[in-house]
Amino acid sequence: MALTTSNELPLLTEAPDFYLPDTNGNNWKSLTDCRGEKGTLVMFICNHCPYVHHVLDEIIMIANDYRVQGIGFVAISSNDIENYPADSPENMAEFAYENNFHFPYLYDETQETAKVYQAACTPDFYLFNASNRLVYHGQLDDSRPGNNIPVSGSDLRNAIDSILYNRTINPKQKPSIGCNIKWKNN
Predict the structure, then answer these.
(1) pLDDT category, 1, cuts 50, 70, 90?
(2) What are phi and psi of 86, to 5 degrees?
(3) Would you tell me how many other CB atoms lie within 10 Å of the CB of residue 9?
(4) The model's pTM
């Protein structure tokens, strides 16, 4: 596990589209299918990352709290499953079921979606407004495995609340930190 911070993607970047299989629903989804009326959170996660496991309950609470308020949610796994079979689509489906995902969990086999988003780690959060413009690309909160700071989701929740209540989002955003995306050796 290589500790990695998220890359900087310029704020107001338009959300890149995708069309990927949903392991949580046995169909294919595009960005349009996952969008919320007021905004969309695109999350790069995977099944085996301890950083994802550390915040997973809060991710699910955030999705449940805000999807009813017009925020769309989608999770994407882009890891190389040949070297990391725990992240296979079959295991993704099981992971989504066991953790009660009420949002799509997409498999990015070619890793093209991760590259277009410039995703670097899991978890990696991209919040887009109703106009599909990036307004937040940062951490969930300051909690990390072993640092004894409780998981609150405060940074991400503040950004989502800013969309919902038409407040300015602080452009100084702390990057997410987690396991590196497991890139294929091409």
Answers:
(1) low
(2) -60, -20
(3) 17
(4) 0.96
